[in-house]
C-alpha cells in the first residue's frame, strides 16, 4: 500500500495545529502508521531539503525547520502521495485554495505549516530519513 511522509512544521506545532491536521487525514480515510515529535538536527534538515541546496532561501529554510519541534508522520492509503498534496494546497499559502491546509492556516511561503512528499520516490527517501523500519507499523484497519 502507498505511503507518504507528512510533517507539521515548527509553526504548525507552535500554533497547536497538530490535532487539526491529523484529524483531516483521519477523516479522509488514511491510516497513520508512524508518528514522532522531533527536533530536527541541522544535518538531517540539509539532507531532507537537499534538492533546494542551491536556492537562495536554503539557509532560511534549514534555520526555520530546525527552530522548534516538528511532528513527523507516515500515512498510508490508496494514492496517498497525490491526495495529501491536494489536501495541503499550494506551497504559497497566498495561492492555496480555501479548504486546503495551507489555504486555511498558512501565512507565508516559508511558514506554510506542513510538508508532504511530492512523489513516491521522495516519500520513500523521506520516510527512510526520519523513521526506522520498526517505527512504521503495519496493522489491519477495520472498516
Ligand atoms: P516544503 O513543501 O517543505 O518544501 C520546500 C520548502 O521550501 C517549501 O515547502 C517552502 O516552505 C520553502 N520555500 C519555497 N520557496 C521559498 C522562499 N522563497 N522562501 C522561503 N522558503 C521557501
From TrEMBL:
Sites of Phosphothreonine modification: 91
Main location: cytoplasm
EC number annotated for this UniProt entry: 2.7.4.6
Catalytic activity as recorded in UniProt: dZDP + ATP = dZTP + ADP; a 2'-deoxyribonucleoside 5'-diphosphate + ATP = a 2'-deoxyribonucleoside 5'-triphosphate + ADP; a ribonucleoside 5'-diphosphate + ATP = a ribonucleoside 5'-triphosphate + ADP
Stored InterPro entries: NDK-like_dom (IPR034907), NDK-like_dom_sf (IPR036850), Nucleoside_diP_kinase (IPR001564), Nucleoside_diP_kinase_AS (IPR023005)
Domain Nucleoside diphosphate kinase-like residue range list: 1-138
Active site positions, chain numbering: 115 (pros-phosphohistidine intermediate)
Cofactor(s) listed in the protein's UniProt record: Mg(2+)
Subcellular location: Cytoplasm
SUPFAM superfamilies per record: Nucleoside diphosphate kinase, NDK
Domain of life assignment: Bacteria
UniProt entry keywords in alphabetical sequence: ATP-binding, Cytoplasm, Kinase, Magnesium, Metal-binding, Nucleotide metabolism, Nucleotide-binding, Phosphoprotein, Transferase
Chain positions with Phosphoserine modification: 122
Pfam families according to UniProt: NDK
BP term (GO), one: GTP biosynthetic process
PANTHER family (alphabetical): NUCLEOSIDE DIPHOSPHATE KINASE
General function of this protein: (Microbial infection) Catalyzes the phosphorylation of dZDP to dZTP, when the bacterium is infected by a phage that produces the substrate for the synthesis of dZTP (2- amino-2'-deoxyadenosine 5'-triphosphate), which is then used by the phage as a DNA polymerase substrate.
Assembly and binders: Homotetramer.
Protein name per its UniProtKB record: Nucleoside diphosphate kinase
Gene this protein is translated from: ndk
Amino acid at each position: 500500500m502507498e505511503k507518504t511522509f507528512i510533517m507539521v512544521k515548527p509553526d504548525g506545532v507552535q500554533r497547536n495545529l497538530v490535532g487539526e491536521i491529523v484529524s483531516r487525514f483521519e477523516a479522509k480515510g488514511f491510516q497513520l502508521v508512524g508518528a514522532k515529535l522531533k527536533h530536527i538536527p541541522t544535518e538531517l534538515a540539509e539532507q531532507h531539503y537537499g534538492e533546494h541546496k542551491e536556492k537562495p532561501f536554503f539557509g532560511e529554510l534549514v534555520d526555520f525547520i530546525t527552530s522548534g519541534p516538528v511532528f513527523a508522520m507516515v500515512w498510508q492509503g490508496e494514492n496517498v502521495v497525490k491526495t495529501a498534496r491536494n489536501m495541503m494546497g499550494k506551497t504559497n499559502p497566498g495561492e492555496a485554495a480555501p479548504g486546503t491546509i495551507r489555504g486555511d492556516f498558512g501565512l507565508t511561503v516559508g511558514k506554510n505549516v506542513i510538508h508532504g512528499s511530492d512523489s513516491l520516490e521522495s516519500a520513500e527517501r523521506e520516510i527512510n530519513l526520519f523513521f526506522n523500519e520498526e517505527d512504521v507499523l503495519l496493522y489491519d484497519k477495520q472498516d
